[in-house]
Amino acid sequence: MSCLDHDANWxxxxxxxxxxxxxxxxxxxxxxxTFLPLQEETRRLRGRFLTQLRPLFPGYLFxxxxxxxxxxxxxxxxxxxSRLVSLGQExxxxxxxxIDQLRIxxxxxxxxxxxxxxxxxxxxxxxxxxxxxxxxxxxxxxPDQRIWVxxxxxxxxxxxxxxxxxxxxxx
Length: 171
Description:
By secondary structure, the chain is mostly beta strands. The chain is built from three helices and twelve strands; from the N terminus they run βαββββαββαβββββ.
């Protein structure tokens, strides 16, 4: 995933529905560096819970290129890509700091890492299991890294233990 041009900027590319793998593979094949942050998402499907990796920004991935060399026209015609996001005639660069901060929060494969510094009282969203998408408050963090959260179920405060990897801080 190395970029051929060190003066390149990051841009936001919109990919066609359910085509992030195709778009990323074709961009890499052409020598572009890409970044597709992913997060685990649990959905209920026919009475079962299914956990999948999904793009953090549905429909979009980041691509590094040099506008001066006209590389953006090649990206726009890449199979799987709809277009580069632009404000005007040319694509608009994404601030490098934003990309750097996102990369810090992801592993080598682009998976979003769980937040490092959870504290009692923090509001979190459960990302896995039967309580996916429920909002809870951290009550206690045990020494073995088990996290006890309080959540409202059927009109009552209920305390449950969850793994820290199954939580995401609310914005």
